[in-house]
Amino acid sequence: MSEPAAIEIQPCGPVDARIRPPGSKSITNRALVCAALAEGKSVLEEALDSEDTRVMIEALRKLGLRPKHDPAARQVTLPGGGGKVPVGDADIDVGNSGTTLRFLTAMLTLGHGNFRLDGTARMRQRPVSDLLDALGSLGADVLDELGTGCPPVRVHARGLPGGRAVVAGSISSQFLSALLMAAPCAQGPVELAVEGELVSKPYVRMTLEVMEAFGVAVGREAFESFWLDGAQRYVARCYSIEPDASAASYFFAAAAITGGRVTVEGLSQRSLQGDVAFCDCLAQMGCEVGYEEQAVTIRGGRLRGVEVDMNAISDTVPTLAAVALFAEEPTTIKHVGHIRHKETDRIAALAAELRKLGAEVEERPDGLTIRPGPLRGAAIDTYDDHRMAMSLGLAGLRVPGVKIRNPECTAKTYPGFFDDLRRVAGRS
Question: Is 315 annotated in the active site?
Answer without folding.
Answer: yes
